[in-house]
Structure formats: C-alpha cells, structure tokens
Amino acid sequence: LSILLSLLVPAHTIRSPDCGGILTPSGLKYRKSRPTSPTPAAGRGSKSVLRQDLMAPPAPDPSLTSPSSRNQITAVKVDEFSLTLIPDTGMRLSIDVDLGITSAPSTTKEMQLSILADLHVEMNPEGNLELVTSACKPTLEELQSTEEMDRSAPRLSSFMSSGSDVNKQINVEKICLEVSKLLLFPNERLMSLAAPFPITPSCQVRYVPLAAPMYSKQGIIISLQTTFQVSGTAIPLPVSPVPFSMPERASSSPSHLTLAFSEHFYTSLFFALEMSGAFNTTMLVRTSPCPEITPFLPQMGSLFQEDLPVVLRAATRSSPRVVLEEGRAILKLFLTAQIGAVSPVFQSFLSMNVDVSARLHLSVVDTRMIISTAAIEDIKLSLAASDVGPVLAVLLEELFLPTIREEVPAQINVVLRGGVFLPHIASFTYTDVNVTVHKDYVLIPCNLQLEAKTG
C-alpha cells in the first residue's frame, strides 16, 4: 500500500540548505559603543531603550489621591547588559540596573534590579526568524538609603505595587514586557535577512531560513537555502547532488561570524544569470571587411561581395557549472557562437561550440561578494555548422580565439561588477574578511561592524 501511495502522490521538492552561517560567541557579545545617541537608521541602543522605558511616566491612576503616596524613579543606570550562548538551548540575557527610588518625600533608596531572560530564535508563521523570550526572572534588592533627593522624576507605580514594600512587590509582568520590547528592533533587523537583493536589473537573490537555528559550543548555526528570481519569477534550480551542512569552525578563530557557501550555491548563481540572459553577448571580431577573412574561407566571397564587419554572437547552450577545489574556484561556461556579418541584419555563416574554463577570484566588500574572472585556463572551439564549407579547428582558433579570450571574461566581469549580496542583517557590515576556497565549499570568516547611517 505504501508503494502504491508513493506512486500516486506527486513528489515534493526537497528543501535543503546550500549556504549558512555560524554566529560565534564573540560575535554574540559584539556591540558598537557610541559617544552620542545612535542615529534613526541604527535604532536606539538597548541600554537607552531600557533606561527610557523604565523612567517613562505611568498612566494616571485615579484611585490614588496623593502623588506623595507613590514610588518614583529618580535615577536609572544600566551597569551590565550581556548576552551569552547556552549550547543546545539558546541564549541568556543578563541585565543589571541601578535604580534610585523615592518612596516618600524625604526618603530615597538605591536598589539594584537584576533581570535574567532566556532567549531563542524560532521560525514564525511567515517563515522569518524571530527572537523570543522563553523565561524571564527579575529580582530587586536594596543597596542603601539616602535623604531628600529630587522628587521631580517620573513615578514608579507601573513597575512597583504602590504602598507596598518595594523589595518584595515587583510587577514581574511589566518588567518582562519591557524586556520583550528590547527584542522589537532586533526582530525588525532579522526580517531583513530574507529580503531580496539585486544581482542584475533582472535577477535577484534571497536567502531563506530553512529552520530555527541550532546552538552549539561553536555558536548559533543558521542554515539557508538560496532562491533566485528572474524578471520577478522564481526559477527552479538544479538539484544539489550532495546535501550541504555547515563545516566546523576552527576553535582558534576569533571571528564574529563564519559564512559558508556550497559548490551548488555558485552553480545556482550562474544558472540564474544564464536564465536571465546575462551571458548572451555580441562581440566584434573584425572591424576590417569580410574580404580579409575570405582567403581563409574562400566560399565567403559568394556570400558577401561588399566589405562588412564580422561579429560573433554568443549564447549559452547548456547550464554553467562551478567547481570548487582546494585553493581555487573554476567556472565552466558552455556557449554557442554564431559568426556572421551585418548587412544590414545579422547573417550567420558558421556556428561553433565554445567551452570555457575560467578561474574565479572571490573577495568581500561590505556585505557583497565580488566575483571576477581572474584568468582563463582553457578554451575549446569546435565547429557546429557551416555555410562556408569545412573549417579546421586550428583555423577557428586563429580567427576567433583572441576575441573570445578577451571578450568572454570581460562580459562576466561586467555582469558581476556590482557583486552578489551576502546574507546579512540591515545596519551591519563585514570587516576583517578572509575568503578561503576549499573542496566543495567556500568559507568566509569575518567580523561584524554596526553602521550608523544618517538620512
């Protein structure tokens, strides 16, 4: 019965990762300090959010007849704000806040509010990663008392039960609600991880989280699947022959983040560019007239009596592939080249198959991977069809190889000159980047830098 059902039910596309990242413990602890308030683009800092929320005036309470009967916060100082990794579980947020609390006209107590919150990242119904709290425990203890401090600060009644001992009466739900507010800004940024990024005007890339992250001693491991759109339509990608998993990070690496990209990722990238027609190009072979080629191809004289420039039109005939070896990345392009003259429209007189193997150079600028053709390692030409009789391979190379060797890498570099955006969260960029090509995958350890952008 199970075999019969498997034949009746259509097979679904298997979703598997082709890239990912490991946010290390040092990356988790990273924070950018600023002498001034963060700009709107960078958002309010977590300490500033907590400080302003704790000191925000509570809503008026008509049941209280005397303002003096209510507790007031006169000072807030965030001493510690740290996030640590708990393997196999998630993260632990630790906050220590010194509070100055006026509970009577002439009495002020210095209290320390300690908050421990367990956090983890999960997938929400929209398919985005979301940071949530699984536990929150605030505690308050008295440090010392002083006399007659300024009583003009906002009141505390939204956090402490009025008329009760402030050591014992903490409004836990309100405190933990304020902690959850701290997650609003990070979650806005997490949503930007799956945003579409342009590669060319007609081709876009997205990095889709496949599941909630895993937590290990190495860090927070996120698996991503790459999807591409061409002219607004998602395209089916080649099936990955080998399942990809994040390689283990070197324990001695001080980097904040380690990104990894599979061989299949790069093949999918060039497949998407091929689908968009990015590698179809027209090359000028000869600015001189056709008669200069006639001695090599005598039958051309009967096709073209006048002086016409010779051009080559190249288009992909099968999907490109990228092969990753230790220390190098190789692009294999398979083209069909039509050779002809424009008189006044293009008239082809022969076509040939062109197989190109080109070394790729990979680097990172900001949040973009810059891919360029460093060198062509091999080119093979073979005749596919001819209206001018048989043409030897040696003659094809003599007539057309110099143009192909120069123009094909130039076209690749033009297509990819803007770079390919890496998975990243808005407002963050990558620094201290090291790109290493291994067999079957590329490893990119880097550090994080939070940018403050104006406007």
UniProtKB/TrEMBL annotation:
Stretches the record annotates as Disordered: 25-47
InterPro entries: Bactericidal_perm-incr_a/b_dom (IPR017943), BPI_fold-BPI/LBP (IPR051660), Lipid-bd_serum_glycop_C (IPR001124)
GO molecular function, one term: lipid binding
SMART domains noted in UniProt: BPI2
SUPFAM superfamilies the record matches: Bactericidal permeability-increasing protein, BPI (SSF55394)
Pfam family of the protein (one): LBP_BPI_CETP_C
Domain Lipid-binding serum glycoprotein C-terminal stretches: 251-446
Protein name: TENP protein
Naturally occurring in which organism (per UniProt): Neopipo cinnamomea
